[in-house]
Amino acid sequence: MPRHAQVNNIDHKDLRIDTRRSAQLGDDVGFAATFPAEFRDLQAYYPIVFRKDAHGVLAPIALLGFEEGVNLFLDGERWDAHYLPLAIERQPFLIGRGGDEMTVHIDLDNPRVGSAAGEALFREHGGHTEYLDRIASVLLTLHNGLQRVPAFVDALLAHDLLESFALDVELDDGSLNRLAGYYIINEDRLRGLDAGTLGQLHAAGHLEPIFMAVASISNFRALIDRMNRSRAGGR
Fold this sequence. Notes:
Elements: E1 4-6, E2 16-17, E3 31-33, H1 39-42, E4 48-52, E5 58-63, E6 74-75, E7 78-79, H2 86-89, E8 93-98, E9 101-107, E10 113-114, E11 119-120, H3 130-147, H4 149-158, E12 162-170, E13 176-185, H5 187-191, H6 195-203, H7 207-216, H8 219-231
Antiparallel strand pairs: 1-9, 2-10, 2-11, 3-5, 4-5, 6-7, 8-9, 12-13
């Protein structure tokens, strides 16, 4: 059970955060939540698809593997991509509220949290370290970005731009695997939009992330290659 607390320089003056990347520290996940403004950074490495949550609400994710709990970008204690999704980087922190003000909270039961080694949160005399300032910036960017997701998805649905997606993959070991339950941009419908609709999407800030999501689909080939290497004994 997570144990959340607002970060402060009295109770947490000696806390350190293990920023290594590993399954033991919680990084072995199959996807990361994302938002339109992050698509440009993600699309060079990860397929960007859409999935429904437990309530049937669609949202974009960066796909990290083909199975729940399997992150094909983990290589020991190394993340094998030049961009780390912000939803991964922010762990073990989250946004909380102190009145009307957003504040940095921490999950004290997260395996990254300790006092022996890692990144300090506070300087000797109580000021924030650069690491904590970075985390605060990441959390704010995530918060603001995720606030824009519903409008983006609504625009895609309004123009019938999402289609269900299934990928059948035969791996080098002969096994057959199916990835299903996701949605991608329908490129034929996108190409069929008239100039006025494209202008409206552009004015709303939706057009660029649409094209970034489309471009990201080419990363499925690299993800399949990663899965083949993983099955062969190395990521």
